[in-house]
Amino acid sequence: MTQLWDFSGGIHPAENKHISTTQPIRKAGIPPLLVLPLQQHIGEPAEPCVAIGQRVLKGQKVADVTGGMGVPVHAPTSGTIESISLQPVPHPSGMSDWCITLRPDGADEWIPLTPIASYREQDRETVLDLIREAGISGMGGAGFPTNIKLRPPKDRKVNTLILNGAECEPYITADDMSMREKADEILAGLRIMAWILRPERCVIAVEDNKPEAIAALKKAAAGTQTEIAVIPTKYPSGGEKQLIQILTGMEVPSGGIPADIGVMCQNVGTAIAVSAAIFRGEPLISRITTVTGRAVTNPGNFEVLIGTPIDYLLSRGGLEENALHRLVLGGPMMGYTLETPAVPVVKTTNCVIAATEEELPDPAPEQPCIRCGACAEACPMELLPQQLFWYSKAGELDKAEHLNLFDCIECGICSYVCPSSIPLVQYYRAAKGEIRVQQAEQLKADRARERFEARQARLEREQQEKEQRRKERAKAAADAQARKQADAEAAETPDGPSQPVGDRAAKAAQVQEALARKKAKAGQPEPVPSKAPEEPASEPAPDIEALEKQLSQAIAKLNTMQSMLDDAKAENADNVDKLERAVTKNHDRVKRAEEALAEAQRTVNATEAQTTDS
Amino acid sequence: MALAQQSSPHARNARSTSQVMLWVILAALPGLLAQTLFFGWGNLINVVWCISVALAAEAVILKLRKRPVVFFLKDNTAAVTGLLLGLSLPQFAPWWVSAVAVIAAIVMAKQLYGGLGANPFNPAMVGYALVLISFPVAMTTNWAQPGLLWESAPGFGETLGMIASGKQTAVDAFTMATPLDEYKHKIASHTATEVLAHPTFGEGIARGWEWVNAAFLAGGLILISMKIITWHIPVSMLAGLALMSLAFGSNADQYAPLSLHLLAGGTMLGAFFIATDPVSSASSHHGKLIYGACIGILVYLIRTWGAYPDAVAFSVLLMNFAVPFIDHYTPPRTYGHHKPRRGVPGKSQG
Fold first, then answer.
1. Is the CB of B3 less than 8 angstroms away from the CB of A339?
2. Among the partner residues A251, A377, A416, nearest to B12 by beta-carbon distance
3. What ipTM, to 2 d.p.?
4. What is the spatial distance between Cα B284 and Cα A379, in angstroms, rounded to a whole number?
5. Is residue A140 very low, low, confident or very high in pLDDT (cuts 50, 70, 90)?
6. Strand, helix or coil at A100?
7. Would you call B335 an interface residue with chain A, using a CB distance cutoff of 8 Å?
């Protein structure tokens, strides 16, 4: 007997499974039109590899994923590609997506198949590729591509391979009927997956409310090491995390995958598909889907071609349109309502419930939370649903996240048990969506800020460089001026140490020149030659300002000389005549400067007059 | 074909809040029956009067708050508040004392905080504490003398007359100090045997009270078996009270014995019907255990060393203050996490 653990919480909703288990699996047949969505599972959408009007054979690949995660889509029967267009697809939002529409020709003609009798002689990678090429994705839940799931991370060893046949959701019996009728195929598929993964333990888990399925599996597994674990019926025992806890007592770490603790779960339907892909060479073109609810007169399970419209399937189940109130795809706990039955069956469609109003009545109006804690008692993830509800409703999303909002598996139990009829799961979905949007926006804002800051830094740097160049130009101009003046002085003033004024001026000019050179060197290692002509001294146009400056400087110097001469005379010093000569020279300089200024002013006036005339 | 658009889950449990509250009322009926059998018509009259006032007060305040009156009255929570006060108040409490308690409970403690689900304090106990402090004479001298309904107790008309007269004190011949009161005030100067000779104790532990408490215990067990309440708060409260009594009050000549603590006064009503009020109590299992145990300890402390003979109302209200704090530090460990996430965001621990 397999040792079992319990998970916390859980409920026992009305099962309603008997509705659809009275008849064996029937073939739904070929509908007039098949609609094949290019995206039937998480990952990348497939790209069509057929042309409109092309005839395809049953099992021929019509679309494939070239890059990224995904599996190909195959033609479920032979016929003609009618269109590649946007069609309503099964999705909670009721959206449309790209689909290939196939008009069956009724011949149901297969492409040549290449079955492999002895897969053990093949390379494991080859078998994984065959599984991918057969278009197999998980048939229980989100539809994760099976070949990728069968390739756990290199550092993770799968010790326990679990085949999930718990089927804990009310109403659904697709796995139950498959196990009853196709136990051998399930075991064959399990053996292939076990050969790939080499686990120490293989378990098929079934809830104890399916005695016929258990008996069939036990018979098929007789003499093998595969365990058939009969687990107590309690929703959501078929949830991956809960099932792992039941069978191993271990918990999948938050944010991790089962392979982190050496476990992998696969659906029993997936095992059937793997078996068909290897032993018969058939790609995944049909599945078992439950058609149930009180609004169908002939409920049961159908082997239905992928792409079959739900309304065709419902007509096979004997739908009473007047009684139909709510159409649910999936189970009553986690499924979603359809706006229209004109959507196709996809690889993950396990159940269609056509419910009457009495069966699934509209919920009562929401009442205030009385903190009764029924939700926390029943939560299989041991969350605090009522606190999550307050924080989600109040928009305090950081607190909701802190209380592990993202560990919620949206099993629907909290809403189911809530006496105040609060749609708790819907609040959590909204809060999760809000947080994801916020995170995306935060990421966007961070990137925008980084870009902005980089731009600001660049602009500032450019500004500084500009400023630097401007300063250098000004300095060069000033230096040139000073040098000229110094030259002029050196020529005009008498040499020798007895000439303190001229000497001082020359020295100052020299020092300034040296400084400027040094600065220029430091600031700009490679002096730009093109800047040279900008020196004001070489400008052809007369610079009145410069001349005025020159004049005032000359006058100032003359005044100084004069006062020095006066002082010398008063003291009767021996340099009086030298100073007298300097004063005379300076007199001449002032005169020259005055003349130059007057000349320049005349020129400018004339130019201005010309400009005004024209 | 207009198909219903709903988010999952599509199936729902049948039990609603109004049904939960109705079950609470039904589970309290054995206790009310025992009260009537041993203490006369007073409690029954009080219960009817308190529920009427509670519904009226709730309707008026809902109208003032512009809330749907019938929708909220149907949730039965106001009726439960009225019922709990009717069961707790002295049998001959004047009509206006009951009315003040109920109106304070519904208007102040419940609706002014935002109505159902938003009140931090147990409404019934707010009303009870208010009248206990404001009208101590009316609240201590109006306890009925124990005696079988068909023997000594005043008749229905007489009881109704006393309550309706509005007088602070009822006819002396019909009243008697409660066992806890009697023991508390006599034990300082008497031995246990002398104290227990008083007729209020009868031949058993506390005449009448023992049956009333047993009936409330039975009603509480029904609620637990129906999963309307969990065992955590009642068990931890009774355990806290018992442990305190065993630790400090083993000498019957000094302190009331454990049997009296458990089966006299409002212990069982408090443990199963009052402390378990979901709105104002702690939410996680750990939190409930702490919350209940602290109420039990406080009940013992106030009964033994405080000024009041019984203490359920004060203990529950004091622990109501502590509920946000307890909740903050007692979240459960979520599946897949090593530790529970205590405290506030930003100080992630698990």
1. yes
2. A416
3. 0.86
4. 12
5. confident
6. strand
7. yes
